Amino acid sequence: MAASGLVFIGFVLAHMYGNLKAFGGEESFNEYAEHLRTIGEPLLPESGLLWILRLGLIAALVVHVASAFALWKRASDARPVKYQVAKRRNSSLSSRTMRWGGLTILAFLVWHLLNFSIVKINPAGGETNNPYQLMVDTFDLWWMTLIYLVAMAALAMHLHHGTFSAMQTLGFTQTVAARSRARLAGWVVAVVVAGGFSLVPLFTLFGVIE
Amino acid sequence: MNLTLNIWRQANPTAAGAMHQYHVQDISEDMSFLEMLDVLNEQLNEQGEDPVAFDHDCREGICGSCDLMIDGQAHGPEVTTTCQLHMRSFKDGQEITIEPWRASAFPVIKDLIVDRSAFDRIIQAGGYVSVNTGAAPDAHATPVPQADALKAFNVATCIGCGACVAACPNGSASLFMGAKITHLGRLPQGQPERDERVVNMVAQHDHEGFGGCTNIGECTAACPKEIPLDVISQLNRDLRTAIRNGH
């Protein structure tokens, strides 16, 4: 759970950074998208590095989801009779919504890949082979931007607990100070990643990126 | 104080249980929670009813027997054991729900009493030092840094009450295991068996049917001895070291 989660933290940070190229305009954004496919050439074939990263991410996803369901099953087996009254006094909302929040992100991921990668669905009906135009057309629709923002809220919560939890599971939080640093890291990663991702849809919707 | 109590009644391990409502009158706020239950049981005895079975022993907050889930909180609203919880923490006319610890590894024996021998088996799997480490004067022969001694002592205060499991949304006993692993792992006497201890205790923990830890943190808030969450981090680190060492 922790190791595969750290892979995703690295991925979303890099992905978020790449998306900010949208502020540089159509050329900068499309050039970046093209560059991703030509890194490592001529040593690697076209999209070579991209496929290595994709396979790594798919492997991490399988491990992450399988571990999550294993933990979920263990938890429900460990408490077959529920409490009539249950009070929470020391847990963040994000820590208690990791499972359903994770499924939300997974469902979003399916749409996101259909939208921008595997099928390239343009919900506005425009062209699909220009990454920048596809992005602008998508986020010009207020409800598309809303879906993306809701997904980023779910991602922020997932990262908020996930970052701390990974540090704890890997045994890096042996002192009170280390534990508060890990909690702070959770906040920073959540705000930077989800905030950074949200900038592009918001600025597109309000016409800054067009 | 007059109180309404909703209490889980279950005649034996296989019987189906249910919540029953009782009323108690003239409870003093200086009574402990268990004394309030004693009043209820005297009342039930007079009426010829079966008294409510609940676990208790020292009534001094050090044995860890008095495990009750009170209004959804292990040992009730204060950070202490149920025996040290007083009725001044409640209001006159309040309705209080009392349930046993809920975990498949802690089966209900009767009413509010659960079988916590799974904890004993986890300790038997590795929570010990096998050799005789001497009598009190021999302690001077093995210097222990004060910070380590203090940390070991602080987590050795675990009384094995099971509140961590009861409060954990995953039903995990990681705080209990982590306390013992940190306690022995901080001391020189605990080093030779350190790797096999963590591996065997975790294997027994999983075998007993406790859940996996997702670092939610409810355990540490429920712990009457305030064992901190970093013992779970220590448990994970020891397990990682042990696996690296080929266990």
Radius of gyration of chain B: 20 Å
Number of strands of chain B: 7
Query: How many individual helices of chain A?
Result: 8
State the shape of chain A.
Answer: globular
Give the spatial strand order of the biggest sheet of chain B. 2-1-5-3-4
The average pLDDT value of chain A, as a whole number, equals 95
Q: Let me know the CATH homologous superfamily of the largest domain in chain B.
A: Alpha-helical ferredoxin
* Extended strand count of chain A: 0
Sheet of most strands of chain A: none
User: Which second-level CATH architecture of the largest domain in chain B applies?
Assistant: Orthogonal Bundle
Figure out the total of helices of chain B.
Answer: 8
Coarse shape of chain B: elongated
Major sheet characteristics of chain B: 5 strands, mixed
Q: How many structural units, i.e. domains of chain B?
A: 2
- The percent of residues in helical segments of chain A reads over 70%
The sequence of SSEs of chain A as H and E is: HHHHHHHH
Described by its quaternary structure, the protein is: heterodimer
How would you describe this protein?
The complex is a heterodimer of chains A (210) and B (247). Chain A has 210 residues and is mainly alpha-helical. Chain A has one domain. Chain A has 8 helices and no strands. The longest helix of chain A has 31 residues, at 48-78. Chain A starts with a helix and ends in a 5-residue tail after the last helix. Chain B has 2 domains: 3-113, Beta-grasp domain (Ubiquitin-like (UB roll)); 116-244, Alpha-helical ferredoxin (Fumarate Reductase Iron-sulfur Protein, Chain B, domain 2, Orthogonal Bundle), CATH 1.10.1060.10. Helices cover 34% and strands 11% of the residues of chain B. In chain B, the strands form 2 sheets. In chain B, strands 2-1-5-3-4 form a 5-stranded mixed beta sheet. In chain B, helix 6 (194-207) packs across helix 8. The chains are: A mainly alpha (210), B alpha+beta (247). The interface between A and B is large, with 39 and 41 residues.
